[in-house]
Amino acid sequence: MGWEVLPHPPYSPDLAPSDYHLFRSMHHSLAEKKFKNRDEVQIWVSNFFESQPVEFFKKGIHSLRERWRQVIDADGEYLLD
């Protein structure tokens, strides 16, 4: 098929969209937020996901290519955002 398999670390926060896109957005939304119990956390997380427009998730996916390029250009070193 003409595919070249490239080695990569088993986990890297620079490569994981959950870290550089999703969790960053959640972090900003959580500023100063305090929960009284686990149920409040679960409700907040559900509401967070439901409130995000489709474009939010598309942006995270579409940013992968550029993010990977940045990691390659940095020779795998940690990226400072």
TrEMBL record:
<dbReference type="InterPro" id="IPR052709">
    <property type="entry name" value="Transposase-MT_Hybrid"/>
</dbReference>
<dbReference type="InterPro" id="IPR036397">
    <property type="entry name" value="RNaseH_sf"/>
</dbReference>
<dbReference type="GO" id="GO:0003676">
    <property type="term" value="F:nucleic acid binding"/>
</dbReference>
<protein>
    <recommendedName>
        <fullName>Histone-lysine N-methyltransferase SETMAR</fullName>
    </recommendedName>
</protein>
